[in-house]
Amino acid sequence: MCACDVVCFLMIYRICIDSVCFVFMFQGRQVINASVKFTMEQLNAQNTKMRPGGFYTPLHCKSQHKIAILIPYRNRYEHLLLFLHYMLPVFIRQNLEFRLYTIEQTGECPFNRGMLFNVGVLEASKDNDWGCYCFHDVDLMLEDDRSLYTCPEKGPRALAISMDKWNYKIVHPYRFGGIVVMSKEQYVDINGFSNLYWGWGKEDDDLLARVEMMGMTADRADKTFARYTMARKDHVQGPGNPIRYKLVRDATYRIAVDGLNTTVYKVLSRTDNPLYTHITVALGDTRNQIPSAFTQH
After folding, report:
1. CA 84, 143, 98: angle at the middle one, nearest 5?
2. 92 conformational bin, left if phi > 0, alpha if psi -120 to 50, beta if neither
3. Under 8 Å between Cβ of 27 and 249
């Protein structure tokens, strides 16, 4: 190869790298087998394009979507393996620049999904200037990759529209849980999730109330493609938050004093695994910090 050929090759390669990703490599509908078993070693071998810490960026074009994918986590290793097997290829085919985080709650307190998402945003923002965040339950796997995980062009977007658990019927037409994508600016404007939902239920309704309070219109994915298989159809839910209905009723009163700006936690460990970044945290206990004025309307 002569010198001019080398120069031409480098110029073409540079143009390819600088070009914006437009084409999605859709596979379409896929069947999710939630009973299949994988090992982490198998998954590592299948996903050689991933960089340490679960980071990926397209090789031959520049992604238009920089997204941190956040998973609240506790005692869900088998579900995590399923998620990695089925969902990493989806994110890659959609030409996302992404990093996958699992945020694990330690201790004996009831699970606090919302606060773990706030922790995820705060920790992920130390790694990159993400354009948006995806708040994703570990047990939901997309059946059709034509439902996009791209950063929202409108309001915050709910993705988990229909599930096999409900025979793909729209049981809750205003459901805003399971999986939500929103821009960094949108998340800051609503002050993130509430930190007060210890135990199962209603933190997603609280989030929707915050979105609407700030004048945003919640968007929802196309139900034709936004179909999900749930890995834990037989899973027994943990204890519900006994004051969850009072909390969600008063969600908009707390927006300035309960959320991202009041999240207290301690990082106990951080591990950059080949396919994901795992962060274990001790959460600050907010159960005694619920202002009585907000629960007496």
Report:
1. 45
2. alpha
3. no
Cα(130)–Cα(153) distance, integer angstroms: 15
- Closest by Cα among 230, 197, 198, 211 to 158: 211
CA distances from 105 to 66, 68, 113, 175, 266 (A): 26, 19, 9, 25, 10
The answer to whether 218 and 134 have CB atoms below 8 angstroms apart is no
Q: Which of 72, 65, 32, 24 is nearest to 227 (CA)?
A: 32
Partners of 98 in beta bridges: 56, 67
Residues 6+ apart with CB under 8 A from 250: 294, 295, 297
The phi and psi torsions of 132 (rounded to 5 degrees) equal -155, 170
CA-based angle 276:161:63, to the nearest 5?
A: 45
Strands (E), the chain: 55-56, 66-73, 97-105, 132-136, 140-142, 157-158, 162-163, 179-183, 219-220, 227-230, 265-272, 277-283
Helix axes 113-124, 203-213, angle to 10 degrees: 60
Per the CB < 8 A criterion, the answer to whether 115 and 265 are in contact is: yes
CA–CA separation, 230 vs 32, rounded Å? 9
pLDDT in tens, the chain (297 residues): 454 443 333 333 333 445 888 767 888 998 999 889 999 999 999 999 999 999 999 988 999 999 999 999 999 999 999 999 999 999 999 999 999 999 999 999 999 999 999 999 999 999 999 999 999 999 999 999 999 999 998 999 999 988 888 888 877 767 788 999 999 999 999 999 999 999 988 899 999 999 999 999 999 999 899 999 998 755 556 677 788 889 999 998 999 999 999 999 999 999 999 999 999 999 998 877 665 534 444
